[in-house]
């Protein structure tokens, strides 16, 4: 892919040769559902808008989920010795790496006309929803939906087509890319107290005042 730079009078397009995968904890250590996504993430919108997908992963205490995670970790440790023996034999036959390399070299998909129209309509719809949400809550979204996000969905659509060695990104690929975008970045943008109740600006202000008064009465470092 490419990245456009317009800084200090220099306007150019450079090849981007790497992907960035980042993980971080909220400022308070745990994700606070009573705060907005912006307060929990605590990064500038200019940085957040550069990520194609943003996932909020919460440690929800559920018996069935905890049991599955514990079982998975125990199996990993139990089969660690067997896995190390097979590593050498598998290294020379890593078909997945070879497949990904083949996709990169030989497949350069582009959007079809119908997929482009579908993407355009959905982008306008998402922008309208975010504008409506900002009007209702009185605050702008923590993760702005801009042309960068549109380019991100295009990259995802083309990547999905590339995985199937297709030279055209169809509506099916766009639908899956939009689904991924909705369950990650859009879900993160909508998260916070507005998920649980429809807050007016007055209610949000009262909550902030109450929180400030509680913090004044609590000792430093206490929870």
UniProtKB/TrEMBL annotation:
SUPFAM superfamilies reported for this sequence: P-loop containing nucleoside triphosphate hydrolases
GO CC, one annotated term: MCM complex
Record InterPro entries: MCM (IPR031327), MCM5 (IPR008048), MCM_dom (IPR001208), MCM_lid (IPR041562), P-loop_NTPase (IPR027417)
Residue ranges occupied by any MCM C-terminal AAA(+) ATPase domain in the UniProt entry: 1-73
Compartments where found: Nucleus
A molecular function GO annotation: single-stranded DNA helicase activity
Keyword annotations: ATP-binding, Cell cycle, DNA replication, DNA-binding, Helicase, Hydrolase, Nucleotide-binding, Nucleus
EC class of the enzyme, as a word: hydrolase
Catalytic activity as recorded in UniProt: ATP + H2O = ADP + phosphate + H(+)
GO BP: DNA replication initiation; double-strand break repair via break-induced replication
Subunit structure: Component of the MCM2-7 complex.
Functional note: Acts as component of the MCM2-7 complex (MCM complex) which is the replicative helicase essential for 'once per cell cycle' DNA replication initiation and elongation in eukaryotic cells. The active ATPase sites in the MCM2-7 ring are formed through the interaction surfaces of two neighboring subunits such that a critical structure of a conserved arginine finger motif is provided in trans relative to the ATP-binding site of the Walker A box of the adjacent subunit. The six ATPase active sites, however, are likely to contribute differentially to the complex helicase activity.
Protein family per UniProt: Belongs to the MCM family.
Protein name according to UniProt: DNA replication licensing factor MCM5
Species, as recorded: Liriodendron tulipifera (Tuliptree)
